Amino acid sequence: MGLLAHFQKWLTENGVPHWASYVVPALAGIIVALLFLFAMIIVFIYLERRGLGRFQIRPGPNRAGPFGILQAFADFIKVLTKEDITPTAADMPVHFLAPVVAFFSAIMILAVIPIQRNAFITNLNIGILYVSAISSLGVIAIFMAGFGSCNKYSLIAAMRGVAQLISYEVPVLLAIAGVLLISGSLAMRDIVSSQNIPFILLQPLGFLIFFAGVASELNRSPFDLMEAESEIITGYHIEYSGMKFALFYLGEYGHMVVASAVMTTLYLSGWKGPVLPAALWFIIKMILVFLVFLWLRATMPRIRVDQLMSLAWKFLLPLGLLNLFITAAEVLWQDNMGWKQFPWPFVFLNLGLAAIFIIIGSKLLFKTGGGRVEV
Questions:
Q1: Is the pLDDT of residue 374 over 50?
Q2: Is the peptide bond between 222 and the residue preceding it cis, with omega within 30 degrees of 0?
Q3: Which of 26, 148, 339, 364 maximizes the CB count within 10 A of its CB?
Q4: Is 368 left (phi over 0), alpha (psi -120 to 50) or beta?
Q5: Which of 80-94, 230-244, 259-273 has the lowest mean pLDDT?
Q6: Which residues have CB under 8 Å from 195's CB, separation 6+?
Q7: How far apart are CA 201 and CA 350, in angstroms?
């Protein structure tokens, strides 16, 4: 039973009206999710700015507060005071709702993420399908922003962003299917409970496919084409300013928090760990996943749009299908042969394919010729 279910039961036992026993826990869940999301967003922004400073041999933010820890709060105050400009020909409802959809979809996903065994807002028996469905709302938010701005460049950038997200959603779902075959459940808590061994050891290829797909969907390097100086303006949110732009900014980092939490749940055995409290283990693993995203941003050059689409359809999709077939063979072997121990042959096979993924993927992304990298 989750935290909200216990809260609801307590309200009912203490004579609270029936309708309030449902409304109050829902509002409490939203507040808890917001507080956790904002806290992790601040941590991630600080780590990224300071980390990039180290990678680029510069100080990073160090003026607002000791070691720059108040810089995110200073930026928040700054965007609140900026003028909110809306194009006169814009579709007002669509233009206004786009950043709201982009941000609040991250909060909705947090509802099914188990921080520890009984620390979750709700435990849906189709939790991972819920995550996949809500995460696809980002496509709608991008298209709404491009269409509602009444700017042809914004619309073109939005259409390209939609194509990018849809293309990478396919290999991501194939990678998730491999996890579901091993765990035998769609519920997020059951997936963690089934990981006597972290699934990253059983599914290293699936993890790499999932990681690459999520990096593209989150507009992270080397897939951040919407922020490239050589691309069309700054992307689908060119007509947004002030707090509306801040919601897009928060939504991007909010989805980064959610993606790190989902990867921790699916591949890193969630809250499990020795000595430390379960919730602390979960947060540590989330931060480690984010640091890998940071490392890639600081070291890998941006790719072209044709390389981006080729990687999705010509490389990640076939590898996702191959990983799914290998996982199905592993599960069939276990069911028919009664082999419940650590499946070393399949682990070695997956590690070999993961190495091939890294080598061939690097060649596809960064073709060299004449001593230069084509980016």
A1: no
A2: yes
A3: 148
A4: beta
A5: 230-244
A6: 183, 269, 270, 272
A7: 8
Three-state secondary structure readout of 145-163: HHHHCCCHHHHHHHHHHHH
Alpha carbons 96 and 243: distance in angstroms, whole number: 11
Q: Mention every residue, 6+ apart, whose C-beta is less than 8 A from residue 372.
A: none
Residue 372 has pLDDT above 60, yes or no: no
* Range in 189-193, 222-226, 311-315 the model is least confident about: 222-226
Phi then psi for residue 314, to 5 deg, are -95, -15
Those residues with Cβ within 8 angstroms of residue 296's Cβ, 6 or more apart along the chain or in another chain: 215, 220, 221, 222
Q: Which helix (H) or strand (E) holds 349?
A: helix 344-365
Closest CA to 334 of 183, 149, 129, 210: 183
> Rounded distance, CA 98 to CA 101, Å?
5
Helix, strand or coil, per DSSP, at residue 368 = strand
Task: Quote the CA–CA distance of 265 and 117 in Å, as a whole number.
Answer: 11
Length of the chain: 375
Residue 142 pairs in a beta bridge with none
Q: Write down the residue that tokens 């303006």 correspond to.
A: 233
In whole angstroms, give the CA distance from residue 314 to residue 308.
10
What is residue 68's DSSP assignment? G
Q: Can you tell me the distance from the alpha carbon of 260 to that of 287, in angstroms, rounded to the nearest whole number? A: 7
Closest CA to 138 of 111, 107, 101, 110: 101
| Bridge partners for 372 per DSSP | 369
pLDDT tens-place string over residues 224-257: 876 665 665 777 888 888 888 888 888 889 999 9
Of 208, 182, 198, 162, nearest to 320 by C-alpha is 208
DSSP string, 171-234: HHHHHHHHHHHHH---SHHHHHHT-SS-HHHH-HHHHHHHHHHHHHHTT-TTS-GGG-TTSSTT
Structure tokens at 349: 């096979």
Secondary structure element (H or E) that encloses residue 93, with its range: helix 92-110
50-61 mean pLDDT: 88
d(CA 62, CA 241): 26
In the chain, the amino acid numbered 35 is L
For residue 69, give the 3-state DSSP assignment: coil
